[in-house]
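Proteins fold reproducibly. Look at a sample protein:
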Amino acid sequence: MSNTPDLGPQPQRLTVDAEQVRRLIGDQFPQWAGLPVRPVAKSGWDNITFHLGDAMVARLPSASEYALAVDKEQRWLPALAPRLPLPIPAPLAKGHPGADYPFSWSIYSWLHGEPASADRISDPVRFALDLAGFVAALQSVDAYGGPQPGKHNWFRGATLRNYDAQAQRALAALDGHIDVGLAREIWKTTLDTPWDGVDLWFHGDIAPGNLLLDGGELAAVIDFGTCGVGDPSCDLAIAWTLLTDDGRQAFRERLSVDEATWVRGRGWALWKTLVACAQSLGRDDEEATNARRVLAGIFSDYRG
């Protein structure tokens, strides 16, 4: 899912082609000018991504809002990596505007793996425990001086009240299609559940596309554009959007998540899912089916 408000104004995204990237590489990093450049099959929304040879990737923000994360990732990923139990992207170089491309951009090492999905995970509980171990390690990193919530990460780590207007638009669109009364109750409970104010590191977009598998096991975590320090409950949404019931319980126990944080994490999952359901109204494709499945799981979990 995009990190932008899906039912409101969105950033003006750029298109970038391989020839532009070749020119950028040739002008700024001549040592890599002879390497082939080809688009990554699933590039994502926030960044347009290209293979650079076999061992590197060039990531170019698709809008000015996403470019705010470039310096943050360059600064913090090398500091976080040694403290984490799984590989994360390693910045190799920072590019600058050129070749009719207006923003800073990055070259990273390429991490092999396939995006996580329920059918690809070999052992759902082990996957949940491995993911929880990664999140726990991230939260254990000293948060002093880390990036506070802001435009650079779409206010991940802050209150979900930032997304209330978007959630309300989704609820209005879904009236008559889902149990809107129950969804509003869960959403209100989330907004009324406070955070204790202790800053912790978070990834900000722990989603299937950012979790890489190797042989059905969690092998790497990518795309830290929304990372920062603040309320880490945003990293719990994956418990509802991907994990099985048993996996969700194991995930919570491994992280020792208190009730208030769990409620806010469920709220992050609800926000994402309401938007996805509203966007997919009238469709019967995989995305629509998955959104309805996740929403049913959130409702069931809330009812206990």
Observations:
- Residues 259-279 form the longest helix (21 residues).
- Residues 19 and 207 are 30 Å apart (CA to CA).
